[in-house]
Amino acid sequence: MAKIGIYVERNTISNGDQMAGIMRFAHLAQRMGHRTDFLFRPDMFKIPEYNGIYIRAFTDPLNSAYVAARTAQMYGVKVIDDPDSILICCDKVNMYRHLMKAQVPIPQTLFLDETQLTPTGAQAVFQELGNPLVLKAPNGSFSMYVEKVATTEDFLKVGKKYFRRADRIVAQRFVRSEFDWRVGMLGGEPLYVCQYSIPKKHWKIATYHPDGKAVYGPVKAVSLAKADPRLLECAAKAAAAIGNGLYGVDLKQVGEEFVVIEVNDNPTINAGDEDTKASDLYERLIRYLVG
Protein backbone atom coordinates (compact mmCIF):
# COMPACT_ATOMS: atom_id res chain seq x y z
CA MET A 1 0.00 0.00 0.00
CA ALA A 2 1.25 3.47 -0.89
CA LYS A 3 0.39 6.75 0.81
CA ILE A 4 -0.72 9.61 -1.43
CA GLY A 5 -1.05 13.14 -0.11
CA ILE A 6 -3.48 15.44 -1.92
CA TYR A 7 -2.38 19.01 -1.32
CA VAL A 8 -5.25 21.49 -1.45
CA GLU A 9 -6.10 25.01 -0.39
CA ARG A 10 -9.33 26.78 0.49
CA ASN A 11 -10.13 27.79 -3.09
CA THR A 12 -9.80 24.15 -4.16
CA ILE A 13 -12.45 23.03 -1.70
CA SER A 14 -14.83 25.78 -2.78
CA ASN A 15 -14.81 24.53 -6.40
CA GLY A 16 -17.39 21.74 -6.60
CA ASP A 17 -16.39 20.36 -10.01
CA GLN A 18 -12.71 20.30 -9.09
CA MET A 19 -13.40 18.64 -5.74
CA ALA A 20 -15.55 16.02 -7.46
CA GLY A 21 -12.58 15.18 -9.70
CA ILE A 22 -10.28 14.97 -6.67
CA MET A 23 -12.71 12.66 -4.88
CA ARG A 24 -12.84 10.37 -7.94
CA PHE A 25 -9.04 10.24 -7.79
CA ALA A 26 -9.05 9.53 -4.04
CA HIS A 27 -11.75 6.85 -4.18
CA LEU A 28 -10.02 5.01 -7.02
CA ALA A 29 -6.68 5.15 -5.20
CA GLN A 30 -8.33 3.58 -2.16
CA ARG A 31 -9.91 0.85 -4.30
CA MET A 32 -6.43 0.17 -5.70
CA GLY A 33 -5.22 -0.40 -2.15
CA HIS A 34 -3.62 2.96 -1.44
CA ARG A 35 -4.21 5.45 1.34
CA THR A 36 -5.08 9.04 0.50
CA ASP A 37 -4.97 12.04 2.84
CA PHE A 38 -5.78 15.68 2.26
CA LEU A 39 -2.92 17.99 3.17
CA PHE A 40 -3.16 21.70 3.92
CA ARG A 41 -0.52 24.33 4.63
CA PRO A 42 -0.06 23.35 8.29
CA ASP A 43 0.49 19.73 7.17
CA MET A 44 3.47 20.45 4.94
CA PHE A 45 5.89 18.92 7.42
CA LYS A 46 4.20 15.55 6.77
CA ILE A 47 5.14 15.46 3.06
CA PRO A 48 8.24 13.23 3.56
CA GLU A 49 5.94 10.54 5.03
CA TYR A 50 4.19 10.04 1.66
CA ASN A 51 5.05 8.08 -1.47
CA GLY A 52 3.45 10.64 -3.78
CA ILE A 53 1.99 14.14 -3.59
CA TYR A 54 -0.84 15.28 -5.87
CA ILE A 55 -1.10 19.07 -5.84
CA ARG A 56 -4.51 20.53 -6.61
CA ALA A 57 -3.93 24.15 -5.68
CA PHE A 58 -2.82 27.35 -7.37
CA THR A 59 0.83 26.73 -8.28
CA ASP A 60 2.54 30.09 -8.27
CA PRO A 61 6.18 30.26 -7.11
CA LEU A 62 5.04 32.70 -4.40
CA ASN A 63 2.28 30.38 -3.14
CA SER A 64 2.36 27.51 -0.68
CA ALA A 65 1.75 24.89 -3.39
CA TYR A 66 5.20 25.62 -4.81
CA VAL A 67 6.71 25.16 -1.36
CA ALA A 68 4.91 21.82 -1.15
CA ALA A 69 6.31 20.79 -4.54
CA ARG A 70 9.85 21.81 -3.58
CA THR A 71 9.57 19.99 -0.26
CA ALA A 72 8.49 16.81 -2.02
CA GLN A 73 11.35 17.11 -4.49
CA MET A 74 13.88 17.66 -1.68
CA TYR A 75 12.77 14.45 0.03
CA GLY A 76 12.61 12.37 -3.13
CA VAL A 77 8.80 12.13 -3.11
CA LYS A 78 7.14 11.92 -6.54
CA VAL A 79 5.03 15.01 -7.03
CA ILE A 80 2.51 16.44 -9.46
CA ASP A 81 3.35 19.23 -10.22
CA ASP A 82 7.11 19.26 -9.99
CA PRO A 83 8.67 22.59 -8.96
CA ASP A 84 10.82 22.92 -12.08
CA SER A 85 7.74 22.80 -14.31
CA ILE A 86 5.98 25.31 -12.06
CA LEU A 87 8.84 27.79 -12.45
CA ILE A 88 8.74 27.48 -16.23
CA CYS A 89 4.99 27.51 -16.78
CA CYS A 90 4.28 30.34 -14.33
CA ASP A 91 6.53 32.67 -16.33
CA LYS A 92 5.25 32.98 -19.89
CA VAL A 93 8.51 34.50 -21.15
CA ASN A 94 10.41 31.51 -19.79
CA MET A 95 7.78 29.09 -21.11
CA TYR A 96 7.79 30.54 -24.64
CA ARG A 97 11.59 30.53 -24.74
CA HIS A 98 11.52 26.80 -23.98
CA LEU A 99 8.98 26.24 -26.76
CA MET A 100 11.00 28.30 -29.23
CA LYS A 101 14.20 26.43 -28.39
CA ALA A 102 12.42 23.13 -29.08
CA GLN A 103 10.98 24.55 -32.34
CA VAL A 104 7.40 24.05 -31.19
CA PRO A 105 4.97 25.90 -33.49
CA ILE A 106 3.53 28.96 -31.70
CA PRO A 107 1.95 32.20 -32.95
CA GLN A 108 4.53 34.83 -33.86
CA THR A 109 5.76 36.16 -30.53
CA LEU A 110 7.82 39.10 -29.30
CA PHE A 111 9.18 39.87 -25.83
CA LEU A 112 8.89 43.57 -25.05
CA ASP A 113 10.68 45.74 -22.54
CA GLU A 114 9.47 49.06 -21.22
CA THR A 115 11.51 51.08 -23.73
CA GLN A 116 9.12 49.82 -26.43
CA LEU A 117 6.08 51.22 -24.64
CA THR A 118 5.80 54.29 -26.85
CA PRO A 119 3.50 55.25 -29.75
CA THR A 120 6.33 54.51 -32.17
CA GLY A 121 7.06 51.20 -30.45
CA ALA A 122 3.39 50.26 -30.57
CA GLN A 123 3.20 50.91 -34.30
CA ALA A 124 6.31 48.82 -34.89
CA VAL A 125 4.82 45.88 -32.98
CA PHE A 126 1.49 46.17 -34.83
CA GLN A 127 3.42 46.27 -38.10
CA GLU A 128 5.21 43.03 -37.24
CA LEU A 129 2.43 41.04 -35.56
CA GLY A 130 -0.70 42.44 -37.20
CA ASN A 131 -3.75 44.14 -35.77
CA PRO A 132 -5.26 43.21 -33.39
CA LEU A 133 -2.59 41.53 -31.30
CA VAL A 134 -2.49 39.98 -27.84
CA LEU A 135 -0.52 41.29 -24.86
CA LYS A 136 0.25 38.97 -21.96
CA ALA A 137 1.78 39.57 -18.56
CA PRO A 138 4.30 36.82 -17.80
CA ASN A 139 2.68 35.66 -14.57
CA GLY A 140 -1.02 35.49 -15.44
CA SER A 141 -3.18 32.36 -15.26
CA PHE A 142 -6.75 31.29 -16.09
CA SER A 143 -6.78 33.83 -18.98
CA MET A 144 -6.10 36.71 -16.56
CA TYR A 145 -3.67 39.44 -17.67
CA VAL A 146 -4.21 38.47 -21.31
CA GLU A 147 -5.80 41.19 -23.42
CA LYS A 148 -6.41 41.87 -27.09
CA VAL A 149 -5.46 45.36 -28.27
CA ALA A 150 -6.16 47.04 -31.59
CA THR A 151 -5.11 50.67 -31.05
CA THR A 152 -1.97 52.45 -29.95
CA GLU A 153 -3.90 53.88 -27.00
CA ASP A 154 -4.94 50.41 -25.79
CA PHE A 155 -1.46 49.04 -26.39
CA LEU A 156 0.04 51.72 -24.15
CA LYS A 157 -2.68 51.40 -21.50
CA VAL A 158 -2.46 47.61 -21.19
CA GLY A 159 1.32 47.59 -21.52
CA LYS A 160 1.67 50.13 -18.71
CA LYS A 161 -0.53 47.97 -16.48
CA TYR A 162 1.47 44.82 -17.23
CA PHE A 163 4.85 46.46 -16.74
CA ARG A 164 3.84 47.12 -13.15
CA ARG A 165 4.02 43.33 -12.76
CA ALA A 166 7.15 42.50 -14.76
CA ASP A 167 10.11 43.90 -16.69
CA ARG A 168 9.19 41.88 -19.80
CA ILE A 169 5.80 41.25 -21.37
CA VAL A 170 4.66 39.06 -24.27
CA ALA A 171 3.19 40.35 -27.53
CA GLN A 172 1.69 37.71 -29.79
CA ARG A 173 -0.08 37.47 -33.12
CA PHE A 174 -3.83 37.06 -32.60
CA VAL A 175 -5.22 33.71 -33.79
CA ARG A 176 -8.99 33.70 -34.13
CA SER A 177 -10.94 30.53 -33.26
CA GLU A 178 -14.23 29.30 -31.80
CA PHE A 179 -12.49 27.03 -29.29
CA ASP A 180 -9.12 26.03 -27.91
CA TRP A 181 -7.86 22.48 -27.91
CA ARG A 182 -6.61 21.26 -24.54
CA VAL A 183 -4.44 18.15 -24.50
CA GLY A 184 -3.56 16.78 -21.09
CA MET A 185 -0.09 15.25 -21.09
CA LEU A 186 1.37 12.96 -18.41
CA GLY A 187 4.89 11.58 -18.51
CA GLY A 188 5.19 12.39 -22.20
CA GLU A 189 1.95 10.62 -23.18
CA PRO A 190 -1.49 12.08 -24.00
CA LEU A 191 -3.88 11.76 -21.05
CA TYR A 192 -7.07 13.44 -22.30
CA VAL A 193 -8.31 15.79 -25.02
CA CYS A 194 -10.95 18.52 -24.77
CA GLN A 195 -12.32 21.45 -26.68
CA TYR A 196 -12.71 24.55 -24.53
CA SER A 197 -15.36 26.65 -26.26
CA ILE A 198 -15.01 30.41 -26.34
CA PRO A 199 -18.11 32.17 -24.91
CA LYS A 200 -20.22 34.10 -27.40
CA LYS A 201 -19.14 37.71 -27.99
CA HIS A 202 -15.75 36.96 -26.43
CA TRP A 203 -12.39 35.92 -27.83
CA LYS A 204 -10.79 33.77 -25.10
CA ILE A 205 -11.96 30.77 -23.10
CA ALA A 206 -12.34 32.70 -19.83
CA THR A 207 -13.53 36.29 -19.51
CA TYR A 208 -13.89 38.24 -16.28
CA HIS A 209 -16.58 40.78 -15.46
CA PRO A 210 -15.70 43.88 -13.40
CA ASP A 211 -17.13 42.15 -10.32
CA GLY A 212 -14.60 39.34 -10.78
CA LYS A 213 -17.09 36.73 -12.00
CA ALA A 214 -15.64 34.45 -14.67
CA VAL A 215 -17.52 33.44 -17.82
CA TYR A 216 -16.55 30.11 -19.39
CA GLY A 217 -17.79 28.31 -22.46
CA PRO A 218 -18.83 24.64 -22.47
CA VAL A 219 -16.22 21.88 -22.45
CA LYS A 220 -16.41 19.04 -24.97
CA ALA A 221 -14.28 15.98 -24.33
CA VAL A 222 -12.82 13.97 -27.21
CA SER A 223 -11.45 10.44 -26.90
CA LEU A 224 -7.76 9.99 -27.58
CA ALA A 225 -8.61 7.46 -30.29
CA LYS A 226 -10.56 10.08 -32.25
CA ALA A 227 -8.11 12.95 -31.75
CA ASP A 228 -6.08 14.16 -34.73
CA PRO A 229 -2.62 12.54 -34.48
CA ARG A 230 -1.08 15.88 -35.51
CA LEU A 231 -2.75 17.52 -32.51
CA LEU A 232 -1.33 14.92 -30.15
CA GLU A 233 2.11 15.09 -31.74
CA CYS A 234 2.23 18.87 -31.41
CA ALA A 235 1.09 18.71 -27.79
CA ALA A 236 3.67 16.06 -26.96
CA LYS A 237 6.45 18.15 -28.45
CA ALA A 238 5.33 21.16 -26.41
CA ALA A 239 5.14 19.16 -23.17
CA ALA A 240 8.59 17.66 -23.76
CA ALA A 241 10.00 21.18 -24.06
CA ILE A 242 8.92 21.81 -20.45
CA GLY A 243 9.51 18.51 -18.69
CA ASN A 244 8.03 15.08 -18.04
CA GLY A 245 5.15 15.83 -15.67
CA LEU A 246 1.46 16.70 -15.94
CA TYR A 247 0.61 19.52 -18.34
CA GLY A 248 -2.36 21.03 -20.08
CA VAL A 249 -1.28 22.09 -23.57
CA ASP A 250 -3.52 24.71 -25.18
CA LEU A 251 -3.55 24.77 -28.98
CA LYS A 252 -5.43 26.44 -31.81
CA GLN A 253 -6.05 24.92 -35.19
CA VAL A 254 -5.03 26.94 -38.23
CA GLY A 255 -6.19 25.13 -41.35
CA GLU A 256 -4.72 21.65 -41.10
CA GLU A 257 -1.99 22.67 -38.67
CA PHE A 258 -1.84 23.35 -34.93
CA VAL A 259 -0.07 26.06 -32.95
CA VAL A 260 0.58 25.98 -29.23
CA ILE A 261 -0.85 28.90 -27.29
CA GLU A 262 0.73 27.87 -24.00
CA VAL A 263 1.64 24.99 -21.72
CA ASN A 264 0.05 24.94 -18.26
CA ASP A 265 1.23 23.14 -15.19
CA ASN A 266 -1.51 22.01 -12.77
CA PRO A 267 -4.16 21.74 -15.52
CA THR A 268 -7.83 21.70 -14.63
CA ILE A 269 -9.27 18.20 -14.11
CA ASN A 270 -12.96 18.57 -13.33
CA ALA A 271 -15.40 15.73 -12.93
CA GLY A 272 -17.63 15.61 -15.98
CA ASP A 273 -15.31 17.61 -18.20
CA GLU A 274 -11.73 16.45 -18.80
CA ASP A 275 -12.42 12.91 -17.54
CA THR A 276 -15.54 12.28 -19.65
CA LYS A 277 -13.76 10.49 -22.52
CA ALA A 278 -10.68 9.36 -20.56
CA SER A 279 -11.82 6.43 -18.44
CA ASP A 280 -8.30 5.65 -17.23
CA LEU A 281 -7.34 9.26 -16.38
CA TYR A 282 -7.27 8.88 -12.61
CA GLU A 283 -5.67 5.44 -12.68
CA ARG A 284 -2.83 6.76 -14.83
CA LEU A 285 -2.28 9.67 -12.43
CA ILE A 286 -2.14 7.27 -9.50
CA ARG A 287 0.26 4.88 -11.22
CA TYR A 288 2.48 7.80 -12.25
CA LEU A 289 2.75 8.84 -8.61
CA VAL A 290 3.15 5.49 -6.85
CA GLY A 291 3.46 2.79 -9.54
Automatic annotation (TrEMBL):
ATP-grasp domain mapped to chain residues: 96-290
Protein's recorded name: Alpha-L-glutamate ligase
Keyword annotations of the record: ATP-binding, Ligase, Nucleotide-binding
Domain of life per record: Bacteria
Key word Nucleotide-binding present: yes
Organism: Candidatus Lambdaproteobacteria bacterium RIFOXYD2_FULL_56_26
A molecular function (GO) term: metal ion binding
Classification via InterPro entries: ATP-grasp, ATP-grasp_PylC-type, ATP_grasp_subdomain_1
Pfam short name (any one): ATP-grasp_3
One cellular-component annotation, GO: cytoplasm
Keyword Ligase among UniProt keywords: yes
